[in-house]
């Protein structure tokens, strides 16, 4: 149907430009917009514009913020000696939900992936190195995803940071709760063994 109504087709095409949205989902979202009131549609459009205009990268940690410097970087209760390096802002949200990490963050905005033409220069690594002039930093936790690219990025960072004399650690990955060993891949099993701890 979208092929016959130009404004609907245009709306579907805009939704399809979003990551992970296919044709069927785009059509469903477009119909949801059409079924909403004009006020709701206007509020939706305004929320998109506000997000684009007001959200930017924190100049310190490169996370998303609508302030000059993000609330995590300006929080005196956070441990300035520890920086957790993540791939993207969604990882920060995930770690914050756990409420167990009290240090600060650095967002790379990607991982090293030669096959996709992404090298270290395309990531926010220079900004991380600039932060190391702060003598309070004693540990960098590399929390990139347990993928080939995530592992390559973690190894690159470990080598890059070794001359600074700062402790570089990696998150332990393993079998998820409710998971079964027989269905786990080799990397997951290796990480589970490597990250093992004493049973108390």
How would you describe this protein?
This protein is 40% helix and 10% strand. Strands 4-3-5-6 form a four-stranded parallel β-sheet. It has a two-stranded antiparallel sheet with strand order 1-2. It has two domains: 6-54, RecR Domain 1 (Helicase, Ruva Protein, domain 3), CATH 1.10.8.420; 64-194, Dna Topoisomerase Vi A Subunit, Chain: A, domain 2 (3-Layer(aba) Sandwich), CATH 3.40.1360.10. Helix 4 links the parallel strand 3 (82-86) and strand 4. It has seven helices and six strands. Helix 1 (6-16) crosses helix 2 (23-35). It is globular. The longest helix has 17 residues, at 38-54. By secondary structure, it is α/β, with parallel strands linked by helices.
Précis, in short:
The protein is of the alpha/beta class. The protein has helices at 6-16, 23-35, 38-54, 89-98, 125-131, 148-161, 186-194, and strands at 56-57, 64-65, 82-86, 104-107, 139-142, 167-170.
